[in-house]
C-alpha cells in the first residue's frame, strides 16, 4: 500500500472508530442505560431478580374481550393493549426482545427484555389507535412500529410524526398540550408531564412529550407520560378519572425525570382516579433500582388501599368493573 493510501486508510479508520464511539455514547444516554457502564451497581440482574409474568396456561386473547367494556393488558414496560369500549388501542409499543439503536430491520443494540413479549405482532393486527408519549427509544421503538398495521391512527407528541410518518402510516396526528382528536368515538386529549423529549440527547430535535386523557362513553382514563413528581395531574380531579396509568421506575438515579413509587401514589391520588395501572417496570433494566423494587414500594405505600393497584403482572389483563362494583374476579385483577 502506498504512503498516500495508507494515510487515507488511517484517517478513515480513525473517523469510523470515532463515529462508532459517539453512537455508543448517544445510545447509552438515549436509553438511560447506566446499567451498562456502572460495574459498581448494586442492583445487577440475578436469576432471582425477575418480574412475575402471567402464569402459563392463561394466554391473552384480545379477540375475546367484549366491546362494551374497558379491558387492559400489560404487554411489558409502557405498552398497554386496550379494548376501550370497542376501540383497540396500544400505547408506546415495545414488542421485541431488545430496545435501542435499531440497525435497519437486522438487529437492535440495547437493553434486552427480562420477560418475553406476551403477544406476537401477528396478534396485534386489528389495532386502531397507537399512542406515543415521547420519542425515547424505550417508548418509540421503530421495529415495533414496523410490525403494526399501517391502517392504525397514530396519535403522537408535537414532532414525532417525522419519525413514524416515513414508515407508511397514513393517519398520523400530532397533538400539543390541550389539543384533542377523536378516532371512532374515542376522544384523546394531550396534556403535559415533567419529562423531556430529545431522542439523541443532549443534542438533536426535541420531539416533545405528552400524557393523554382518553374518553369514550363517559369513561375517562389517564395514560401518563414518564414524569418526575408534579402537581400537573391534580387538574384532572375536578372531572375524576376511573383509571390512571403511571410510570413507576427509573428513579435511581433519574429522579429529576422519573417519580419514585411514593411520588407516583401521590400523583395518582391527586387525579381522583379509582384504579392505578403501574407501567414502565419489570421489563428492561434501565436504572439502578432492583427490578422488583418499584412495584413492591408502590404496594407498600398504598397500604390498605393497595387493592386499587391493578395489573401487577406482565402478560395479565384486567377489566374495569361495572359502576359500584369494587371486587374483581381473580382472572381480571392481574394480581
What's the SSE blueprint?
Blueprint: H1 3-31, E1 70-74, E2 80-84, E3 87-91, E4 101-103, E5 107-109, E6 129-131, H2 142-146, E7 153-156, H3 161-164, E8 171-174, E9 180-183, E10 186-191, E11 211-216, E12 219-223, E13 243-247, H4 261-271, E14 275-279, H5 293-302, E15 317-319, H6 330-333
Parallel strand pairs: 3-6, 6-7, 7-8, 12-13, 13-14
Antiparallel strand pairs: 1-2, 1-15, 2-3, 4-5, 9-10, 10-11, 11-12
Helix pairs in contact: 4-5
Description of the structure:
The relative contact order is 0.15. The C terminus is likely disordered. Helix 4 packs across helix 5. Helix content is 19%, strand content 20%. The strands form three sheets. The protein has a seven-stranded mixed sheet with strand order 8-7-6-3-2-1-15. It is built from six helices and 15 strands. It is α/β, with parallel strands linked by helices and 335 residues long. The longest helix is centred in the N-terminal third of the chain and has 29 residues. Strand 4 and strand 5 form a beta hairpin. The protein is globular and about 50 Å long.
Attribute tags:
alpha/beta, six-stranded mixed sheet, 6 helices
Uncertain runs with pLDDT below 50, 5 residues or more? 29-45, 53-57, 324-333
Q: How do the strands of the widest beta sheet line up side by side?
A: 8-7-6-3-2-1-15
Provide the residue-averaged pLDDT: 84
Strand content: 15-25%
**How many individual helices?**
6
Overall form: globular
What is the alpha-carbon Rg in Å? Answer: 20 Å
The sequence of SSEs as H and E is HEEEEEEHEHEEEEEEHEHEH
Amino acid at each position: 500500500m502506498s504512503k498516500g493510501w495508507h494515510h487515507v486508510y488511517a484517517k478513515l479508520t480513525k473517523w469510523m472508530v470515532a463515529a462508532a464511539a459517539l453512537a455508543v455514547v448517544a445510545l447509552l444516554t438515549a436509553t438511560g442505560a447506566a446499567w451498562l457502564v456502572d460495574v459498581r451497581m448494586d442492583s445487577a440482574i440475578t436469576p432471582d431478580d425477575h418480574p412475575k409474568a402471567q402464569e402459563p396456561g392463561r394466554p391473552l386473547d384480545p379477540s375475546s374481550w367484549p366491546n362494551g367494556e374497558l379491558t387492559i393488558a400489560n404487554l411489558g414496560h409502557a405498552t398497554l393493549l386496550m379494548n376501550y369500549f370497542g376501540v383497540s388501542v396500544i400505547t408506546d409499543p415495545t414488542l421485541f426482545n431488545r430496545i435501542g439503536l435499531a440497525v435497519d430491520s437486522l438487529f437492535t443494540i440495547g437493553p434486552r427484555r427480562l420477560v418475553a413479549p406476551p403477544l406476537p405482532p401477528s396478534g396485534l393486527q386489528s389495532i386502531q389507535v397507537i399512542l406515543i408519549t415521547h420519542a425515547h427509544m424505550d417508548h418509540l421503538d421503530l421495529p415495533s412500529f414496523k410490525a403494526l398495521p399501517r391502517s392504525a391512527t397514530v396519535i403522537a407528541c408535537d414532532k414525532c410524526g417525522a419519525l413514524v410518518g416515513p414508515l407508511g402510516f397514513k393517519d398520523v396526528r400530532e397533538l400539543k398540550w390541550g389539543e384533542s382528536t377523536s378516532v371512532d368515538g374515542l376522544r384523546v386529549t394531550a396534556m403535559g408531564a415533567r419529562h423531556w423529549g430529545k431522542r439523541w440527547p443532549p443534542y438533536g430535535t426535541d420531539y416533545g412529550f405528552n400524557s393523554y386523557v382518553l374518553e369514550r362513553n363517559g369513561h375517562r382514563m389517564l395514560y401518563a407520560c414518564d414524569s418526575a413528581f408534579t402537581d400537573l395531574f391534580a387538574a384532572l380531579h375536578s372531572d375524576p378519572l376511573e383509571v390512571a396509568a403511571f410510570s413507576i421506575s427509573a428513579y435511581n438515579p433519574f429522579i429529576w425525570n422519573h417519580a419514585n413509587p411514593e411520588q407516583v401514589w401521590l400523583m395518582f391520588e391527586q387525579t381522583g382516579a379509582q384504579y392505578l395501572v403501574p407501567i414502565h417496570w419489570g421489563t428492561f433494566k434501565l436504572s439502578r433500582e432492583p427490578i422488583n423494587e418499584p412495584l413492591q414500594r408502590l404496594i407498600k405505600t398504598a397500604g390498605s388501599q393497595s387493592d386499587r393497584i391493578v395489573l401487577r403482572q406482565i402478560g395479565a389483563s384486567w377489566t374495569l368493573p361495572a359502576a359500584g362494583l369494587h371486587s374483581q374476579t381473580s382472572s381480571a385483577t392481574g394480581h
